[in-house]
Design goal:
With about 300 residues, the protein is an alpha/beta fold. It contains ten helices and 13 strands. The chain is globular, with a radius of gyration of 21 Å. The two termini are about 35 Å apart. This is DNA polymerase III subunit epsilon.
């Protein structure tokens, strides 16, 4: 477990006593954000990872807008070990329209918080442009809003901490950020962008042994490794409508831009998947390779 130096020693003594009983489970609040740079000096050499979260006026990147944006930068060495971090920085944005009350219930943001507010786009874009990899817990959602606001960032490499880490094999229940954080023994204030970014960073720096007796490493290292590994999209083009439920049950998702059903797999599993499609009466399945620059789009 990550150290608990930021917590009250007296409270920690009580928490330790509770943890000795199987009838209790203790969650600790993540610390307040703090920077950590080598010798508190200039930006270190190494790979730059931006952790991002957006709160939005709705679910459609085409019709809705960002109302809160948070970004922090992390730096890792060649072995994906953390060597520095700073942020998060966060901004509010007036959507210029009435906010759905349900969004206010989720985020705690209302018209009184957003009126006249504006994201510092020069600064925010500069942070994202500096990053070699952008991380979010739902990258397929956040990337669309980010690229709509900053079109020149299209094609940046993204990684998704929800889908690209095999949390089940690591012994976690669920994949929501709050559930993962709780499993690791922590909690934070959710649904505000800066708090969510910092909580995700805190989760990703947690160390755990790889399944099957592999090395002990951070979840951030796992995520970077997954993002760096090309994968294959297997496309069930011209699949009969009668095969819809079969494909869904196997994990295929509908791609309306195709339109066709598709699944993302490691390259070594493609031949097996194509053979499965043949045995189940599907037309010859096509494939394409995707990297972090195309994934989650």
């Amino acid at each position: 477990m990550i150290n608990t130096d930021h917590l009250s020693p007296d409270a920690e003594a009580l928490a330790d006593e509770l943890q000795r009983s199987d009838d209790y489970r203790v969650l600790r609040r993540v610390p307040k954000p703090y920077p950590s740079m080598p010798h508190m000096g200039p930006v270190p050499d190494g790979r730059c990872v931006a952790i991002v979260d957006t709160e939005t006026s709705g679910l459609s990147a085409e019709h809705d807008v960002i109302i809160e944006l948070a970004i922090m930068l992390c730096f890792v060495d060649d072995g994906s070990e953390l060597i520095g971090h700073f942020g998060p920085f966060s901004w509010l944005q007036d959507p210029g329209r009435e906010l759905d009350p349900r969004i206010s219930l989720i985020t705690g943001l209302g018209a009184q918080h957003l009126m006249g507010q504006k994201i510092n786009d020069t600064f925010a874009r500069g942070l994202l442009d500096r990053a070699d990899l952008i991380v979010a817990h739902n990258s397929s959602f956040d990337s669309k809003f980010i690229e709509r606001r900053y079109p020149d960032l299209a094609g940046k490499a993204w990684a998704c901490s929800c889908s690209e880490i095999d949390w089940l094999k690591l012994g976690f229940d669920g994949r929501s950020q709050s559930a993962l954080l709780a499993h690791a023994g922590w909690f934070s204030d959710a649904h505000r962008a800066a708090a969510d970014v910092w909580a995700l960073f805190w989760l990703l720096r947690h160390r755990q042994r790889d399944p099957g007796g592999g090395p002990v490493r951070t979840h951030l290292a796992r995520l970077i490794d997954a993002a760096d590994t090309p994968s294959a999209i297997v496309q069930a083009e011209r699949a009969p409508y009668s095969k819809k439920e079969m494909l869904k049950a196997r994990g295929y998702r509908w791609n309306p831009d195709g339109p066709f059903w598709q699944i993302e797999l490691p390259p070594q599993k493609v031949e097996h998947e194509q053979a499965w499609g043949y045995r189940n009466g599907l037309p010859t399945m096509t494939t394409r390779t995707v990297t972090a620059r195309e994934r989650h789009r």
